Amino acid sequence: MKHILMIDDDISIGDMLTEVLTREGYRMTRAYSGTEALLVLSSVRPDLVLLDLMLPGLNGEEILPKISGIPVIIISAKVDVENKVDLLLGGAADYLTKPFDTRELLARIAVQLRKAAETGTASRLTFEDITLDTQARTVTVNGQPVRLTRTEYAILKLLMQNPSQVLPKSLLLDRLSQDTPDCMESSLKVHISNLRRKLKDAGGKDYIEAVWGIGFKMRE
User: Fold this and answer.
1) Which domains does the chain have, with CATH numbers?
2) pLDDT, tens only, 7-26
3) Can you say how many angstroms the Cα of residue 173 is from the centroid of all Cα atoms in its chain?
């Protein structure tokens, strides 16, 4: 039985979705605030998370970077396209705008769970010879471990979560600041340069490219 964590302080919507998803065969856990969600995630590892953005305490944007290796579907009344793009680039698997049809939500949940099953584990990111395990917080190239600093690991994780996207420097700094406050605009290039060197030493090629005037991406 697949386990879904729903993080939403709207009791009426939560009750309705819990009834629908339980009837569909899912096991449900609920959290009503960002702080409660982190407490739940410290002891429980669901197969998928439904995340509202407007939460008491820590909001959804603050919670998202703290969820590793689990598909997250954002459910929000916010319809701003730029906000959606930032969240999808920041690690969300999907975004559904309230109000929505429950049949569409069920379809999107099924798609994300199938994707996780097809990759073998939702906690493992791969790009060519690189494997990043978000649970163990390890990185290997051609099966050989690569020692990265906390900041280098966070940068690589963001890039591998969005391998075909150019991540602007501003977005990288915003996401990194939530987990690695030591990374400033003045030091970002140094961290990325060190990361590229370590990966190249292990794999014999450059896996990351700079897109002039914009940001960085994985080299295809």
Assistant:
1) 3-118 (3.40.50.2300), 124-218 (1.10.10.10)
2) 999 999 999 999 999 999 99
3) 16
